[in-house]
Design a protein that fits this description.
Elements lengths: L3 E5 L4 H11 L6 E6 L11 E4 L7 H8 L3 E4 L6 H4 L2 H21 L5 E7 L26 H19 L4 E7 L1 E3 L6 H5 L4 E5 L5 E2 L1 E3 H13 L4 E5 L5 E2 H7 L3 E5 L4 H10 L7 H9 L6 H5 L9 H12 L6 H23 L6
Parallel strand pairs: 1-2, 1-4, 2-3, 4-5, 5-6, 6-11, 7-10, 8-13
Antiparallel strand pairs: 9-12
Helix pairs in contact: 1-7, 2-4, 4-5, 9-13
Amino acid sequence: MADVVLVTGVSRYLGGRFARLLTAQPGVRRVIGIDVIPPPHDIGGAEFVRADIRNPMIAKIITQAEVDTVVHMNVIATPLSAGGRVSQKEVNVIGTMQLLAACQKAHSIRRLVVKSSSAIYGASPRDPAMFTEDMGAKALPRAGFGKDSVEVEGYVRGFARRRADVEISTLRLANIFGPGVKTSLTDYFSLPVIPTPLGYDARLQLLHEDDALQGLLLATVGPPVGIVNVAGDGIITVRQATRLVRRLSVPVPLCASGLLGRFTKRAGLADFSWDQMQHLAWGRAMDTTRMREVLRLEPEFTTRAAFEDFVSHHGPGLPGSAAIGAAVNALAGSAATVLTGAMNSPRNG
């Protein structure tokens, strides 16, 4: 049973909610939340300590507080919220290395819980219908959050070899949706006009934020579970999701995705990488047998219900005609630029 728990990333939405949830659990005597800025939300009875997991100082905090359980939630999915891709990678990869080094030296550590992601499986046309926990990606993520998640899990495996006495639970969470969470995918479905990969209709498997927190709680206060896929039942396709959010969609050649991603990022509308566009083309789904049998989690929300809850809180419906026109013209111009460049390339000369 967790006694003194350290939670990273408490200034972020899910981290703050989890810290607050953990303080209400019987048997948990003390919760320490760390982040580089004070949390803008209520974290309940948790103690906030301003610290950067990239700094070796984190080892002193763990040792002095005699922390026995670490919940690592500070693996950032969105570059904009981290201050850019460079900062995102530093927090995700270098931060995880420093945190695990501190845990390795601390004799009080008995359990490590890591918030990982389904992005570790990548997305390709060769993917199985369902990924189980013992399967690897057919095409490893090449950049962004997916690549960071692969590296983070690699460091966790190394830590497990060095500290065999520590119980480790790694939850590979599906894309999280809900009323309060903000991710690259929620930003994508909030665009005034949604660019969809031409000729594709990917399967999406989602997880409601409440079910994500419940899964992390079970992994923290319950028995260790190892690696577990966590997702809501069922799937929806990109086109079904677009209809549910009542947005116009514009089919765009997949080769234009990189340029469109840069356009939406510069416009401050969304921030999604090439790997995320691959996900929107090929989709991804996970087998959740271990979630029920080992983690003992029965999600309250299906994939469709999680998306509908997001829509109900963010307001379905079409934006004004001016916004639609501007977005369509921008998308069309971006696609035309890519296609013109392809036609004028030396290979086509």
